Amino acid sequence: MNWFYLSNNLNDFQRIQQINQEHIHLMLTKISHTLSTSLLIVYIERAEQLPSTQQGKTLEPYPFCLIKIDNYEEKTSIIKHSTNPCWMKSFMFMLVNPEQSLLQININDSNNKNHIIGTVEILIKNLMEEKDWIINRSYPLKSSFQNSLHTKLYIKLQLQIMTKIHPIINRNYQMNSSDDIQSNNSIEEKLQLKKSKIQIHLINKHNDQQIVHQKKSSQINKSNLFQTLFSSCIKKSTTATTTINKNFI
Questions:
Q1: Which one has a higher pLDDT value, 93 or 245?
Q2: Do the beta carbons of residue 162 and residue 39 sit within 8 Å?
Q3: Are 47 and 153 in contact (CB under 8 A)?
Q4: What average pLDDT does the chain have?
Q5: What CA–CA distance (Å, rounded) separates 30 from 28?
Q6: Are 8 and 159 in contact (CB under 8 A)?
Q7: DSSP strand pairing (102-109 vs 86-95)
Q8: Are the C-beta atoms of 103 and 124 separated by less than 8 Å?
Q9: What residue numbers bound the domain in which 20 lies?
Q10: Which of 129, 131, 138, 230 is the most buried (most CB within 10 A)?
């Protein structure tokens, strides 16, 4: 038994296809031995304005959906007396080559020998052209009844490729490999910016030291000037005192 992750990446599909081809060449047997490459999810929601399948009668049908793809066949439950049936049923199918698969959905009337009311056919390769490989819409039914002009089937389809590499890890690896040059450039830019910031910081620090030194020098000069003035004042007062004493004597 093999375990796989699910992905909607085309590269993963090509990788699993290559593995399948190698497996075919090695086994040289029936196609039943090949690996399934993808998982198709079919969600049958509802139908609108189904016609009656019995001519000349207005009997409401007993509709059910018959889903066919590759060698698979599934069907929904029967909704009695309904022209607007609601099934809300999902199905899963393992596909070998989705690019060559055709999905066919028939709406049958179980009240009239399973007569086909209408059909919808979808090529899975068209699904692979949609965003994230998802379709959520209504399809008009191909029908032979005249009053089936507005008949619609609402369905949702999603295709997932099976891969042994987790899609998140793979995506991160691709992003890293594609962004190597940009990351190197960004690293260099960050280093350059850091260097410039360091230089600016050193310049500012040097300027701050000069300012502090100038402040200290001005403070020393002021203290020296004060001491000089104080000394001169003392000398003058001493001289004046001596003169007064001589005159007094």
A1: 93
A2: yes
A3: yes
A4: 76
A5: 7
A6: yes
A7: unpaired
A8: yes
A9: 5-178
A10: 138
